[in-house]
Amino acid sequence: MQAIKKTIVLYPGLFVSHFVPMMQLADVLLEEGYAVAVALIDLTMDQDVTLAAAVDRVASAKPSVTIHRLPRIQNPPAITDCGGDALLWYFKTVKRYNDPLREFLCSLQQQQQPARSVVHAVILDGPSADALDVTKELGIPAYTFYATNASAVAVFLQLPWTHAEGQPSFKELGDTPLSISGVPPMPASYLMPPMLDDPASETYKTMMRVSRRNPEPEGILVNTFASLEGRVLRALRDPLFLPIGDDGCRRMPPVYCVGPLVVGAGDGDGVGEAKEKHECLAWLDEQPERSVVFLCFGSLGAAAHSEEQLKEIAVGLERSGHRFLWVVRAPLPTEGVDPERLFDPRTDFDLCAVLPAGFLERTRARGLVVKL
Fold it and tell me: Which PANTHER family does this entry report, sorted A to Z (predicted)?
């Protein structure tokens, strides 16, 4: 009788920069002999064409990976109801999809009787901690996966204890350095914008609530490797990394390095064997090894920079004297932002108009700027 493969269910995030690395992780799991199923929140924003295209490419290129679109919920959260805050919208959406996720996992369990072939584990996108309610209820081991670096994971894990009740908010701290284990001192003003909100705001409260759940899974998978981030990984693996909780226990799950996960054909990059090499790859092939600084800040519109910030980055690159490859998306408008278009990658813009005068010409010999 042929042995039934253990199934690992992946529950990716709603942004292409979270989805694609998790699909690369799927390749690793397949090589280890697991069956892989993907539970995907059905897209609720028609403008998110980038993620939709990435899902289609993975479905076509990875027939061994089963992709299940969870049924759409009634009256899903709208980003306009969240004040245009994409992160708050994300947290609310994930929580609302707990019921469809539960139904999907239960259906897998029923299909895989006897019990010896039950779902082996669920791997969640890092910010999807509210889905842990489902895995705990069903008794399925759960792990969280972070496509980002280990330093960012260290910050997220320690945030709830960095700002204690009654102390100044991160915004009030301004440029006061924060003491975060494993990470060099960092001004509080460098934190992501939601953490600089009023502590009484819904976004801030939700962010802190989700952050407090980060130690709950059986383990944390990070897209990094030890020789790159040895200092912070040693801190993360220290039993004293987190303080004692309200229950009198100290719980820090094991941290596993699973990177670097490298994009390949069919992973959502749109580069296939029959297609010509992208101009940036051809340009990179002509540069000396280890000589290029790469700048790319993700696909989410809310992570875009203002024109002023783009000009500051350009000045820094020019003064550095280094070769560089810079991926730039349309700058955020100064007013009249349409929250429903935060995910729209199709906005065209004039690079020369948003960068310092003559920047492209002066840096042409050592730099390449690509519009996202």
Answer: GLYCOSYLTRANSFERASE
